[in-house]
Amino acid sequence: MIKKINNFLAGLPMTIVAGVFLLFDLVPHLMGEFGGTEFHFAFFPFDPAWVTIVISGIPLLYLAIWRVIYNPGISKISSALLICIAMFAAIAIGDLFAAGEVVFIMAIGALLEEATTKRAKKGLKKLISLAPTKGRRLKDGKEELIPAEEIQQGDILRILPGETIPVDGIIVNGETSVDQSIMTGESLPVDKGIGEEVFCGTINCFGSIDIAATKVGENSSLQKLIRMVQEAENKQAPMQRIADRVASWLVPVALLIAVLAYVFTRNIVTAVTVLVVFCPCALVLATPTAIMAAIGQATKHGVIIKSGEALEKMGKVDTIAFDKTGTLTYGRLDVSDILPFDETVSEMSLLSLAASAELKSEHPLGKAIVACAKAQHVPLVESTSFKMTTGKGIYAEVQNRRLLCGNEKFLTENGVSIGAKIQSALEQLRTQGKASILVADQNQCIGVIALSDVLRPEAKNIVSRLSAMHTCTVLLTGDHKRTADYFANQVGISEVRAELLPEEKVRSIETLQAEGRKVCMIGDGVNDAPALKAADVSVAMGSMGSDIAVDAADVALISDDISKLPYLKRLSNATVKTIKLSIALSMCINFVAIILSLMEMLTPTTGALVHNAGSCFVVLIAALLYDRKFE
Length: 631
What we know:
By secondary structure, the chain is α+β, with helices and mostly antiparallel strands.
């Protein structure tokens, strides 16, 4: 109940009410202070500042007491405690405006900080929702649908096309292609056969398979993925207020000066004035206002920054780890090479034959070939006979031609000879990280069509610009080593770590951090979520990235424009400099105000106004960030 009341009073609506009543109190107090006549409230039976004190003071008092009780060691002493002392001292001498003003400024600071540090928590729920709830167990020759939590190690499970695999396992019967992008980020489904491993949460694309369960329940790959995100989320500490970092010495110094002021002047008003002007309200406002301005600036450029802590850390980053698929590349397959091996077959004829054969195929490679043919207005012919062999290829009859389209093993099994010339071409394409579809007609291989993920044209320039800013780049991907090396060479990344599962990406991030590096991870897939959380700063591709990756990241690029990374670093550096400048100026204003208070040139009311002016000055400095040019 106490917490609910506290949250209600600290909310924006009640803070606005507190500000209105403080404003009602300002004019009459100024008339009493500077007009030389006593002013009586005509509209209120009580001083309006009491409303501000109650609304903004109770949450502050609650916070100060909570920290004294629960915080360890010196952290029990906080800026909230100092302001509460100043509030009670001002009340004791009857200066309610001064008491209301200091707690109101703190309430504004708390709201600004909350607005900059509030983090979305939906990503973990979405990740948990991916966990399969049921499995199809084979027992005594019969199928039974059972809850996933009842599956035991060693159980034989049947996975039908389109179903999600409920546990980690080994295929014991059947062949298929598995979409395991959730785990590895690979853009292509992976062909799987007997004896090969499949992972929980991945999707069986085509053939029916039977698997023997190897890792079940909390030990499955997907549950480990969920657990890693939870653990990394718990490690993310909220941005600590700068005022509280110095409160351990600020409170004792303020109290000492106030006591000495009373001892030497014998004037309690002077002592209270010192406490009022010493309150670190401008110090508290310096960080959230600068961060809000920077976040607004970034939003104009299509960059969503979720926390001030991430913005502050981005300037310290010296290593950026890229995922490949969907980050350095577009994450879509395009036909990259059409290589005829028969002099009588042209490139367009080969594409036409392959696309006609693949018209009825559901495989992503086949669909990409058909899409390429349609985009180039190549004539297509419906096949009269079509048969798909899961994980290998297809057979189709097109205009009385018996066509085979598939991998090397598929053609060999169907009596097609693969000569040295073809082997050499396939090896060359593999070194470039490309997937190959061989096309055979009448038991003769007539050509190969290669497909590749499409590299973002700006990627090479971005890596070069980051290098010029003394920032190292690393490629972390679940793709094959050859594919990873090819794309890394294309963009100029020298450090490559390939064939990584989610937990291995996390370990790679931790290894880089153990070397003393400040790491920023940029990715787009569900499989990137743990690595994004483990990094010092994380960036997700906002428009095409998974919701889970976007929620896990500190920063989202709305237009998937990785060229914003250098801009982010410059913006971060400017924000940190602005915060430091604001803190230095606020401390100088406080110092001057203390001197004037000791000279009895300020009262609690005028001291509060000077103190308020300093806070406004800090806000104005922060506002300059919003329109500054960083590109």
